[in-house]
Design a protein that fits this description.
Blueprint: H1 2-21, H2 31-34, E1 36-45, H3 48-53, E2 61-66, E3 72-80, E4 83-93, E5 99-103, E6 110-118, E7 123-131, E8 137-144, H4 151-163, E9 171-173, E10 189-192
Parallel strand pairs: 4-10
Antiparallel strand pairs: 1-2, 1-8, 1-9, 2-3, 3-4, 4-5, 5-6, 6-7, 7-8
């Protein structure tokens, strides 16, 4: 029984690794062009937090900047209750351009982040494979330089999410909101420490 269980776990790990290898990365990725302000338009995930919080999620603002050592600092501002909150994450570049790693200091989860495709001036499609003690999960994010995207871009996001094994009920086009969208927003802005904000890049 023990041997059979180990075998099944090994097969599951192999399948997860193969799934990661099939996720593409933007050809000739230009990191400096990805910096600046983005709006989160779509979010897809098979994680438990997404299932629990899906009905509360709204569009948020993400600002990406390069650090002196070439990594990415990602700051997301989003509405929560009657205030705005910010979350900062530091994404470390890997040897493959367009691919980054991040470990949540709060939860210990490891994130393999890939910029799947972008034209830098309009949209960016980002896929993240998350590994944590409770099991792996997949997250896909669609970013836009404005609060609206064409139906073709939205369909591409939906189709790509399905290709990653996500069901339609795990795919969400985020509701538009003017709250916090300018980075300052209404009410108070609370700065949170480095954390694994699912709304970040």
């Amino acid at each position: 029984m023990h041997t059979a269980l180990l075998g099944l776990l090994g097969l599951a790990l192999l399948a997860a690794l193969r799934a990661q290898d099939t996720i593409p990365v933007q050809t000739d990725f230009q990191q400096d062009k990805l910096t600046g302000k983005w709006f989160s338009i779509g979010l897809a995930s098979n994680s438990n937090w997404f299932k629990e919080k899906k009905h509360l999620m709204k569009m948020c603002t993400t600002v990406i900047s390069e650090t002196a050592d070439g990594n990415l600092e990602v700051t997301s501002t989003y509405p929560k209750g009657d205030q705005c909150e910010k979350r900062n994450s530091l994404y470390t570049r890997t040897e493959q351009p367009g691919r980054f790693s991040y470990t949540s200091p709060r939860w210990g989860s490891k994130h393999d982040i890939r910029v799947v495709e972008t034209n830098y001036e309009e949209y960016a499609l980002v896929a993240t494979q998350i590994s944590k003690s409770t099991g792996p999960s997949t997250m896909v994010l669609l970013y836009s330089r404005t609060k609206e995207l064409s139906p073709e871009r939205l369909e591409r996001f939906t189709q790509f999410s399905r290709e990653q094994g996500l069901a339609d009920e795990e795919i969400l086009i985020l509701p538009r909101t003017g709250e916090c969208s300018q980075g300052g927003g209404w009410g108070q802005t609370h700065q949170l420490p480095l954390a694994g904000a699912p709304r970040a890049l």
